[in-house]
Amino acid sequence: MQHITILGSTGSIGVSTLDVVARHPDRYSIYALTAQNKVEELAQQCARFRPKVAVVGSAAAAQKLQELLRIQGLSTQVEYGETALCAVASANECDAVMAAIVGAAGLAPTLAAARAGKKVLLANKEALVMSGQLLMDAVAANGSTLMPIDSEHNAIFQCLPDGYGRVPAQHGIAKILLTASGGPFLKRPVETLEHVTCEEAVAHPKWVMGRKISVDSATMMNKGLEVIEAHWLFGVPAAAIDVVIHPQSVVHSMVSYVDGSVLAQLGNPDMRTPIAHALAYPERIDSGVEAIDLVKIAQLTFEQPDLQRFPCLKLAYDALHAGGSTPAVMNAANEVAVQAFLDRRIGFRMIDRLIARVMDAMPSCAVDDIESVCEQDRRARVLANSYIQP
Ligand code: NAD
Ligand code: MG
Which tens digit of pLDDT belongs to each residue from 193-208? Predict the structure, then answer.
């Protein structure tokens, strides 16, 4: 029996993880669930999965949750705040941690899980973008296992040889081909992007996801973050990571080998597949996802991304080249810009302009510990906010 902590259990990835877990009560039990403020949903999840601990974002939310649990006669222990998140991510009673908090808020508990030697199922790509070297070092130093949940990286993992040690040349790996759907604005006239609405931006044609990653997909910053994520997970330089637009979202990514072979992983766009893969690896378990019908799909198409249309993708390559603090700075500026767009305080194209401005203003510096990463993150947020009209 594996005991699991789900960080961000009320989110899109959290709910999909619970769906897979519920199919295998003989294999998995829930140690802890966490949510920022969706207290009613968390209470329902507690009633169904009976975790030992539940963590929320504030004292007020904790009080509300406690009350809801008391009415149902549940004995789940309720905690709140970052220290409690780190505690449930590193507790002795827990074997595996699903890191599915969105954004920089996921960094501390994800790092805590790695430092405690847990099996870390990583959905929270922002954590790796911010502190790639530190997180990979923590994984290596503490015997932790890092399993990619992002569909592209999970696909790449599946196309790599067993025992791949993050040295591509040793295994004849020439390139990583990251596929991207292109999001909702792939074909929209570029000059009209200035005026797209939040509703249009979050309406992803293929995937149902949280609001932040949906906007990231519309700007293609999501793919940019994934380029950096691939660099750290697989030890591949930026020059060997290509992004390919594939609107059908059937091929989830590919690995190209020096002998001309290209290995791909295909499947329906449903996150339960990578979640089930990462949970059970090296075994295979039912995820609730049906196999694809290739005849019905009939056509798979591929094209090059247009960097005029998607400047965020270029910014992410620039950040990876710059290294040091720049990926964390870019990530922080993006989080501020996306939230401002979702709050209707800035237009869609202001997202990339704001990020570029913050990156220009904050030259790369070395970040040797988590405190310096967080300090750069904080400074980038202050700067980004100062560029937004009140
Ligand atoms: P979501 O917005 O649906 O859920 C986020 C979860 O994090 C919620 O449970 C929320 O309560 C919690 N949370 C939010 N802010 C928090 C904070 N400050 N402190 C603690 N908890 C907080 O997001 P999602 O779509 O499930 O994405 C989660 C992560 O997984 C993101 O990093 C995203 O990039 C990544 N991811 C998602 C998908 C997908 O299909 N949804 C695919 C690949 C990667
Ligand atoms: Mg992805």
Answer: 999 999 999 998 888 8
Smallest-distance ligand from the CA of 123:
1
CA triplet 279, 45, 74: central angle to 5 degrees?
A: 120
Q: Please name the residue whose Cα sits nearest to atom 23 of ligand 1.
A: 210
What kind and span of H or E run contains 359? helix 348-361
The tokens describing 374, both together, are: 């967080």
Residue 159, domain member (yes or no) = yes
The reply to whether ligand 1 has any atom less than 6 angstroms from the CB of 124 is yes
Alpha helices in 11-150 (DSSP H): 12-22, 39-49, 59-71, 82-90, 107-115, 125-141
Token code pair at residue 316: 């992410």
Q: What is the CATH number of the domain that holds 134?
A: 3.40.50.720
Whether residues 7 and 71 fall in one domain = yes
Q: Are residues 286 and 204 both part of a single domain?
A: yes
Question: Residue 158: CB within 6 Å of ligand 1?
Answer: no
The model carries a pTM of 0.98
In the reported structure, the alpha carbon of residue 124 is separated from the centroid of ligand 1 by a whole-number distance in angstroms of: 7
pLDDT (tens digit per residue) in 285-329: 999 999 999 999 999 999 999 999 999 999 999 999 999 999 999
- Cα–Cα distance, 35 to 55 (Å, whole number): 6
Tell how far the Cα of 179 is from the centroid of ligand 2, in angstroms.
9
Structural domain containing residue 95: 2-148
Q: To which residue do tokens 């539940």 refer?
A: 54
Give the Å distance between the CA of 54 and the centre of ligand 2. Answer: 27
